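Weekly structure sync - notes
Attendees: PM, LS, DV (DV joined late)
Agenda: review two folding runs queued last week.

Item 1: First target. Sequence and structure tokens pasted below for the record.
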Amino acid sequence: MIDRRKSLLALAAATLAFGAHAQNTVTRILVGATPGGGTDIVARALAQELSTRLGRQFIVDNRPGAAGNIAAQAVAQAKPDGGTLLLSYTSHVINPTLYGKLPFDPLNDFTPLAGIASLPAILVARPNFPAGNMREFIDVAKAHPGKYNMAIAGLGSANHLAGESLKLDGGIDITGVPYKGTGPALQDVVAGQIDLVISGVASVQQLLKAGKVKALGVTSARRVTEFPHIGPVADVIPGFDFSSWYGLFGPAGMDAAEAEKISAAARAALQSPAMRERFAHEGLIPMGTGRAEFTAFVKSEIPRWGKIVTATGAKPE
């Protein structure tokens, strides 16, 4: 009788182990954006690499809405078994202050796994704007307060807040004009109906090469490889450094070994020629930070962006 009971217990344990293994043969990477956007592109490239490296399927699950909060909440509430992950954007650290109160904690309800990529932006102007670099721009804007306008492609976005910081730190008065997206904003800058916009490198690189917009400065502290002739805003406004970023998270409480395995695979994926070529095409700079470093980075980013949201009074769309 005892042997029979032991056999049954062993069978039950084996069944549970098989079920847990089967459940994790597919890992969903939730993305808080629609297909085709920057976050989705990064997630799909990463999912393909992780599938190859870890020998199980990683798929992208789009959950757009509320600036990424819907996807983030779903991951925060998921089982910490490695079956559900989040590919998040800078909004992950902006939203806690922007929205005031969220149904999850951006740090404590997640397991930060790896920093994936950063995305510098460029301040561009209409082709006939009366300034060709940052210093000239600051001088012109100060000489004509309130005369010029800047498109805001997404209220509360990283680029919006970078623009607000530019106004505060540069001591200039520019009128913000909200737009539903980067595409329409750039169209109006090209047409000369809007003076300025801050946009990611990938969105403006073809327009810059065609001479349809004029670059005034990059928002990152360093120059962008693709456009080494464009000086950083920081050359004129010391300390100015605003780049968006993408990071991989799991739910809080993940097994340390499983978390490290996924983190290591993600970092290794960033070294692949295919991934680097894709990132270069999108204007992305690989980060490749591990769990401890990425956790510290996220922790520091929450108050940094929070101060900007508070100072500018930015509100979500």
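Item 2: Second target, run right after the first with the same settings.
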Amino acid sequence: MSRKAALVALTALAPISWGSTYYVTTEFLPADRPLFTGLMRALPAGLALLALTRRLPRGAWWWKSAVLGALNIGAFFPLLFLAAYRLPGGVAAVVGSVGPLFVVGLAALFLGEKPTVKSLLTAVTAAFGVSLVVLKAGAAFDTVGVVAGLLSALSMSAGIVFTKRWGRPEGVGALALTGWQLTAGGLVILPLAFLLEGAPPALTGTNLAGYAYLAFGNTAISYFLWFRGIERMSASSATLLGPLSPITAAVIGWAALGQALGTVQVLGMLIAFGATLAGQLSPRTARTPAAEVPSTASFSTAEKNGQEVSMDLEVSEVRR
């Protein structure tokens, strides 16, 4: 396997992992506590990585880490959950799947990555495939939900682009940078969770097991792989791995929860997966920045879309 194929495969594990979020949320966690769940995903994972790496930001990286943490986690999660609660899951997933298009525009503006016909076509094709997988006939639209979904996609897309734009400070590994962002994002969610949802619920052993998986497997490890991949791939290529999340969620729903997969859904999976593969065929792959580089010209994108954007948007599909 080539280095590029190995990089893509490792980075793809992040949106694949995020596709399991729905199953874990519905089967292991207390109901109707989305912000508390977001908090439990981000803050313990961030603090664990800080303890492991024993590195804190310095200088401008205090505010840069805060901005990246807010975009990738702190703003993204609440907006994501607001969209999921205001919209049917399929509509929310489709709204979130526009993330690759946002990345194409932001990458052109901040990274100097010129949009191509191929990048635009693959982004649109991926969104179309996702819509076939998750969108139901007669799905209702809600203005607040649609706006929240678009803003969540924009937040994650901006996080992807600025993660790539700023790189990493010299001598700091991707694991430490991931810890900074998760901690900052968790601290953004913390007051929102207590103000809007009240005190934490009583937790069972099953709940704790679910939160442990979300915090460490689904978040700490997945975000490390995600941010590491963003550094080495073009912004558009990375974001086009996002459709793997709703595809994974649909497969888990079929295998573990008995959800039906019709011909249209399978066709949508093939289309979205084909667009994902096509997005990785660019001959140019961005090099890993060894240190913070101020110039946008030296950079050649997934999310969460990755998205994780598709990550938890798919979470509400069966709940409805």
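Discussion on item 2: The chain has 15 helices and no strands.
Action: LS to circulate a short write-up before next sync.
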